[in-house]
Each structure stands twice: as structure tokens, then as C-alpha cells.
Amino acid sequence: MRVAVIGANGQLGQDVAYAFAGLGEEVYALTHVDIELSSLDSVEACLRSRSPDLVVNTAAMHHVENCEQQPERAYAVNATGSFHLAKVTRDLGAALLHVSTDYVFDGKQATPYVESDEAIPLNVYGKTKLEGEQLVIATNPRHFVLRTAALYGKSPCRAKGGQNFVDLMLRLARERGRVRVVAHEFTTPTATAELARQIAVLSRSESYGLYHATAEGSCSWYEFAREIFRLAEVEVKLEVASPTEFPQKVSRPFYSVLENRELMDRNLNIFRPWQAGLQEYLSGKLQEAAIPA
Q: What CATH number did the domain enclosing 222 receive?
């Protein structure tokens, strides 16, 4: 199978390309240099020259504050760009696996969101990603749309200054010895390596549709930090921050827990508890640190 991974230099994209390569697939690792999602001509030229059987879109404008400041650009990439991919893949007879976000929800629910729950985004990022979902679903019948949350992985996340939450916590503990984290926001930490493996499994089926795809379980950001320090065996003074201590410039959902109901109903869910993914990630960092440069 020929697989084109868009955003292949990103935090998730690199792990997706690696997962498919590990299965022996022919992988085209595409970056912004190769394809501009907001341009139909660029999308068409790039994909037609490669004739993929599957396109995995991990690219997005996902810096939440920048989306608020540049809504037209966010719409062009997250919504119009998704339509361009859906149209071209449909015309080529290819499947499209499109990665979306928990930010399509308002976070006012107290139980995990399932795929059928009403999506009510709070910010420009969420609104443009929701419209992208809808355009993909309406345009290419051979679609997989995956909503995920709280990603962290080996590759740098450019939208977060190259550092994910796990690495940030470890750095702050090392530099300060004291860390304060909010306990009123809830999510499901999801390792990109785990999500990449799930994407590879789902793509080999013909069970097209909308899916939630996160690790199993949930926690507050404070509980996430506590588990990071416990597994990494780091001595640090961890304290609960007040809800107003780190004011957000843009509204975000306080409760971003997703349930993988559709994956489970179709016997396609391979996610483990979020703690297992974190353990694997931290073990990999230790192994890397032990290898001489």
C-alpha cells in the first residue's frame, strides 16, 4: 500500500510515517515544502504525482492563540485544506484518514464524550477543525476522521515551542524543584506512538467513519504530572495551582475526555491505559539518554 503522510515532520506525523514503514508500506513523508493544503492546485499536483492508496493528514494550524489572531489562515488550512484533501483523494480513489481534535467540544459535560455527542467548539481552532471534519465526511465516502487529545511524543511539537507536557514537567522539576499544575481540567494523555499504531490498524479496515481515538482512562493535568514524576522517579514538590493562576487567553474546554466507543464497538480499539503509554515514552527517553552520542 502506498501511504502519503501529510505533516510528516510533526509530532504525530513522524510516528505515523514510522508505523507504516514498519509494516512494510511505501511511505511518502510530505511536509509543507511538498504540499500547501490551502491550495487545491498544490494538493492535486502533489498527490496525483504519487497516486497514494491512503492519505493520512496530521497537519493543521493548531496553535490556539494564533488561530484566534489569524482566523482566515486557520480556516484556509483546517477547513478548506481538509476539503482539498477530501476532493483529491476521492477523485484518485484513495482513502483519507484525517486527524481532528477534542477541541470540537465545549467541555461542559461531566462524562466522556462519544462520537454522537453534539460538537460545540469554543474557539477558532475548534470551529475550523469541526468544519474540516464535516467537509471530509461530506466529500470522500472513504474517510476515517479521528478525534484525539493531549498528544505528546518523541518529535518536537512546533506549536508548543518544541516541548510537550511531559518534557516540560521534567525540565521544570529539574530547574526549579517545585511545580504547580491545575487540577480542575481533565483530559486523556495520549502518546503519539500509540495513536500512530491505532491509525495503522484502522486504516487496514474498511470501517469508514468518525472515531474518538485516545488512550484509555482520564486524569487531571495535576494527576498527569504526578504520574510523570512517579514513573520517572523524580523528586519534586508538586502543588495544585488555582484555577486563576494560569489565565488562558483563549477559551478552552475544561473537560476533554473522549470515549473510543466506535473503535470498541467494531473491535478495532488497541489503546492501553494512558499510564502504559507514558511508561513506554519515559522508558524510551531513558534508553536514548544511555546511548553515547
A: 3.40.50.720
